[in-house]
Design a protein that fits this description.
- The structure is a single chain.
- With about 300 residues, the chain is mainly beta.
- It is built from three helices and 18 strands.
- A hairpin with a 5-residue loop joins strand 11 and strand 12.
- The longest helix is centred in the N-terminal third of the chain and has 16 residues.
- It is globular, with a radius of gyration of 21 Å.
- The N terminus is likely disordered.
- The structure holds calcium ion.
Length: about 300
């Protein structure tokens, strides 16, 4: 809601305030009393956007870089607003850790670029909803870290979670890391402390290549499947299985959830150099048909080659 506060009457015209102005001020006082005034304009209305996804049942998060990105000077991203209707955002208070909005990235479309050094957007979630199953889509590409960056550790592409340090309470994509020998053919879908699912597909994390990843977890971390551009990855269970209990983030965006990395301070070195165009999260496992619909739509939007074999 954007609230326009009427200007004060010009000097010398005291007493000439018209009735509509008085009514407007009364409305302001009423809104202040009921606590519904926002200091910032709200992001663009989101409910209308839902209809543009072919599947919306269980939709909990939807970021698109061509909408809802709030920037400051130099296109630094302060906030990325959720289009799902659930009211989440991804934010960064520290200006040095803000990613940048790139107007022409994957297929000439906008994306949010993370520098691979410290950039991350933390996910705000005040709902407290705990998800025990989920489906996550991400359209992105990974970039090589530039030579000036001292850290060369794992890439945490994105992570969900209210607490970054409690196993089975966070969930994310990790690649190019020491755990996988630096391989660009491995992605770990992680749930904490080595209790993960390791996904294998040749070249899945090739630098500079735009790709759509989708992963589903059905109740427990070892019941995770992952698809890259529609092709199912070979999966291998690591560690001990356990039931997942995942929040998107926490109330002020400082929890385990993050785009481009995780807000957890100990994991700062795991920020990924990447460009993210779109992220979609559901609180359930989508059927193969539903997943195919979304993959098809995202594939068209970003001109990705999506495999349809086996369907
Ligand atoms: Ca930075």
């Amino acid at each position: 809601m954007i609230l326009t506060v009427p200007r004060s009457p010009a000097r010398g015209h005291r007493g000439s305030r018209d009735s509509s102005s008085v009514a407007a001020w009364f409305a302001v006082l009423l809104l202040l009393a009921t606590g519904t005034v926002r200091s910032q304009p709200a992001p663009s209305p989101s409910r209308s956007g839902e209809a543009e996804l072919p599947v919306t049942d269980g939709l909990r998060l939807w970021f698109r870089a061509d909408r809802g990105v709030e920037t400051e000077q130099g296109l630094a991203v302060k906030a990325w607003h959720d289009l799902s209707g659930a009211g989440h955002s991804a934010i960064q208070q520290d200006s040095t850790r803000r990613p940048r909005l790139i107007q022409s990235s994957i297929q000439g479309k906008p994306a949010v670029r993370f520098d691979g050094e410290d950039d991350v957007l933390g996910i705000v979630d005040v709902s407290g909803e705990v998800m025990t199953s989920l489906t996550v889509f991400i359209v992105h590409r990974l970039n090589r870290r530039s030579g000036s960056q001292s850290y060369t550790g794992d890439y945490f592409v994105m992570r969900l979670g209210g607490d970054g340090d409690r196993r089975y309470q966070y969930w994310g994509f990790e690649t190019l890391g020491s755990a996988g020998g630096g391989s660009n053919s491995l992605v770990d879908v992680l749930a904490g402390w080595g209790n993960d699912m390791r996904m294998r597909k040749p070249g899945i994390s090739t630098f500079g290549k735009a790709t759509l990843w989708c992963a589903t977890t059905d109740g427990a971390i070892h019941r995770t499947r992952m698809y890259a551009d529609g092709v199912e990855c070979q999966a291998k269970a690591l560690g001990v299985d356990g039931p997942i209990r995942i929040k998107l983030g926490n109330a002020d965006g400082t929890g385990g959830g993050g785009l481009g990395g995780t807000m957890t301070e100990a994991d700062r070195g795991h920020c990924s150099a990447s460009e993210i165009a779109e992220v979609i999260v559901f609180n359930r496992v989508l059927s193969a048909e539903e997943r195919a619909k979304l993959e098809r739509q995202l594939g068209q939007r970003y001109s990705l080659q999506i495999s349809t074999s086996g369907r």
